[in-house]
């Protein structure tokens, strides 16, 4: 654990009103030399300013006490024109990565780098989901408070959580990751239980013990999140999106989508593209 890093994060989380959070504008495809990874990231400017090609022309400088949240699969292109102190946080499925660095105007100095396993409840995953939704329609002060919550969660991961987890927790995490990666397939409680060599009842018990949603609700939530991404970024037919996300019946998918979002898939796509 890095005490200076923890103190820095605590200071950010304690004063959300001092921070503003920005998001990349939609500019596919990613240009040469841009940074793009399949995980969400935070780029936080602590001192100075950094110009970034993913921000709007004329307002493309990220200044002190500003953070750039980059959803998974989106790119950014930092340009180091002036001295700056920045903190980068990478949220992969298994780990959190922290990189504190300073650009002097002549060269880059790496001050601190650290990785920590993501353990315990999936609080961070839900905070990241909230940030992804806020990227579509930023709302203050919710955005600042969610950002502060995400930073506070990073502190928890660095300081409060145990170094190991129980076998049942490890099994549940493996099941959740399998569902995340294969939600577009024909999954069921029975088929997933069989893959992990456990009974369907024990699989349900694992989800109930964690105090989270049940297996079927978890699978539905993952599939709907994937559908939202496809609706936002692609011109696929609704039926094709439904099948791609594991729904055999596109009419059922549309009813379920409306129940969870208060919009039909078509209305959701239209809304996202007007932002």
Automatic annotation (TrEMBL):
<dbReference type="InterPro" id="IPR020449">
    <property type="entry name" value="Tscrpt_reg_AraC-type_HTH"/>
</dbReference>
<dbReference type="InterPro" id="IPR018062">
    <property type="entry name" value="HTH_AraC-typ_CS"/>
</dbReference>
<dbReference type="GO" id="GO:0003700">
    <property type="term" value="F:DNA-binding transcription factor activity"/>
</dbReference>
<dbReference type="GO" id="GO:0043565">
    <property type="term" value="F:sequence-specific DNA binding"/>
</dbReference>
<dbReference type="InterPro" id="IPR018060">
    <property type="entry name" value="HTH_AraC"/>
</dbReference>
<dbReference type="Pfam" id="PF12833">
    <property type="entry name" value="HTH_18"/>
</dbReference>
<keyword id="KW-0238">DNA-binding</keyword>
<dbReference type="InterPro" id="IPR009057">
    <property type="entry name" value="Homeodomain-like_sf"/>
</dbReference>
<protein>
    <submittedName>
        <fullName>Helix-turn-helix transcriptional regulator</fullName>
    </submittedName>
</protein>
<keyword id="KW-0805">Transcription regulation</keyword>
<feature type="domain" description="HTH araC/xylS-type">
    <location>
        <begin position="173"/>
        <end position="271"/>
    </location>
</feature>
<keyword id="KW-0804">Transcription</keyword>
